[in-house]
UniProtKB/TrEMBL annotation, chains A, B:
<feature type="active site" description="Proton donor">
    <location>
        <position position="27"/>
    </location>
</feature>
<feature type="binding site">
    <location>
        <position position="29"/>
    </location>
    <ligand>
        <name>Mg(2+)</name>
    </ligand>
</feature>
<feature type="active site" description="Proton donor">
    <location>
        <position position="29"/>
    </location>
</feature>
<feature type="binding site">
    <location>
        <position position="259"/>
    </location>
    <ligand>
        <name>Mg(2+)</name>
    </ligand>
</feature>
<dbReference type="GO" id="GO:0005737">
    <property type="term" value="C:cytoplasm"/>
</dbReference>
<feature type="binding site">
    <location>
        <position position="234"/>
    </location>
    <ligand>
        <name>substrate</name>
    </ligand>
</feature>
<dbReference type="InterPro" id="IPR006349">
    <property type="entry name" value="PGP_euk"/>
</dbReference>
<keyword id="KW-0378">Hydrolase</keyword>
<dbReference type="InterPro" id="IPR036412">
    <property type="entry name" value="HAD-like_sf"/>
</dbReference>
<keyword id="KW-0479">Metal-binding</keyword>
<dbReference type="Pfam" id="PF13344">
    <property type="entry name" value="Hydrolase_6"/>
</dbReference>
<keyword id="KW-0460">Magnesium</keyword>
<dbReference type="GO" id="GO:0008967">
    <property type="term" value="F:phosphoglycolate phosphatase activity"/>
</dbReference>
<dbReference type="InterPro" id="IPR006357">
    <property type="entry name" value="HAD-SF_hydro_IIA"/>
</dbReference>
<dbReference type="InterPro" id="IPR023214">
    <property type="entry name" value="HAD_sf"/>
</dbReference>
<feature type="binding site">
    <location>
        <position position="27"/>
    </location>
    <ligand>
        <name>Mg(2+)</name>
    </ligand>
</feature>
<dbReference type="GO" id="GO:0004035">
    <property type="term" value="F:alkaline phosphatase activity"/>
</dbReference>
Amino acid sequence: MSTPDYLTGNKEAISQFLDKFDVFLFDCDGVLWSGDHLFPGSVPTLEMLRNKGKQVVFVTNNSTKSREDYRKKLESMGIPATVEEVFGSSYSAAIYISRILPQRHPELKKRNKVFVVGEAGIETELDSEGVSHLGGTDPAYRRDVTPEDYKLMAAGDPKALDPDVGVVLVGLDFHFNYLKMCYAYHYIKRGALFLATNMDSTLPSAGALFPGAGSISAPLTKMLGGQEPMAFGKPNQAMMDAIEGKFKFDRSRACMVGDRANTDIRFGLEGKLGGTLGVLTGVSTKEEFLEGDTRPAYYVDQLGDLVET
Amino acid sequence: MSTPDYLTGNKEAISQFLDKFDVFLFDCDGVLWSGDHLFPGSVPTLEMLRNKGKQVVFVTNNSTKSREDYRKKLESMGIPATVEEVFGSSYSAAIYISRILPQRHPELKKRNKVFVVGEAGIETELDSEGVSHLGGTDPAYRRDVTPEDYKLMAAGDPKALDPDVGVVLVGLDFHFNYLKMCYAYHYIKRGALFLATNMDSTLPSAGALFPGAGSISAPLTKMLGGQEPMAFGKPNQAMMDAIEGKFKFDRSRACMVGDRANTDIRFGLEGKLGGTLGVLTGVSTKEEFLEGDTRPAYYVDQLGDLVET
């Protein structure tokens, strides 16, 4: 395995690095900001890249926010961005369901509804792709399970289980409950595909960890005897395929920028991108980048080092 | 591996079988009844055993019911029983927490409260052993998570996280939610033991399967990087130890009766009981009992064959 090139302070190397790529995919937390703190070099770096005519894409596993919600979050952090530059795991799942699934699973063509376990971000992205859905934020699913529910589900009664549901899509759901677990399980047992926006087991907030989307799908995996969902977030390549499907870029001219070796850098390496850039302002340490199993092609102390040489 | 003795229709063999044991541990669903249907031979068999002075124990993994609740269920099925004859996974967990844990984990002596994810059956059994608890059916935990929750939990603020909590006990919880997952995770990260009443991934109801206690603990296991809870239901031997602790019986003179090779029969075999009796009125087939990896010492077509010869 080769040693990553260290770019910080090396003007010549940075210039060559930038010339190699047309597209930069950015992980956000740990790269552009940390928690509520925007890194000072983030905005100048993005500006420099845009001025050079590079395409920037903000890639997020966050499934609760739609692209527009996430654009607003970028804006609130002080980073100007367009909706088109944002690529989230919910959007990635929606694209897969609307564009790829009908070809791969023609048997599901007539079962074109999605049962959602998740928040509004998923619903917005399914709507943007014209995909019908139920569950999700519908308050009718925020209640206790009743003996009648058991009977109707056990009987496969269409009053409980919509026969048009061909996909169960699970993301982070702050309103996850027993009833939704029952529905999701019974739809899958009746032939629906089991998809997840992403498999992050935890979600960082306020400096600590809380349950992530991967923990919401865990009970279903347990009930299904270990069956894992098909997932769309980094490092899953379904996400890269969806990004490529949208931006039609040349993978050899694209670079993934991230702070985590095992998700961001792995995502770029397995996607056979032309390059990967590690930053040391997040989770992975210099030792991980230099000696780990998953090494970026390049690394910098911080993203802003690309402009401040 | 030896072939199980088939007792049905063999009066002499049945008589010898009965003479070997003083205590009979019964799995219930699939042995005494199926769903709402009581098998006709169940009551006469239990009567015959009691008339012969045998101790009968009803062993259930059901964590939502207290022993008294379960006794009522037995009664409603037409089976007379006393509370003392009922042994459930919640009671098993309560006994472990009150009697064994203080010796095994002296460091938790001052952290003597249990955070419960589960229903009233767990609370009743903890109360019966004088163990303090919080969470559970308290309506204060049936709400959405707020930004304030994140901050308080991240800071380990005693307003959110009671410093006296030394155990998280997870059972089947029909009111499971995101907030309880957050609490359970943060208590465990702060040193609380991770216990589960039982690990059944599903719960049969109305002829179909629904999420079981093992699915309720699955998100925590996912968040904790794969850490499994210590569990008390069959086939876990913590349950057998608790039963022995209470009834003080001679294991060589005890027989486990069940319909499932991989839980009931395994429970008896790993517990080194004198005998195991499989019945063919539940989940396991004759082939499983005769050719599987976990074989009972004896089997009958149905429990009632012990009296109707």
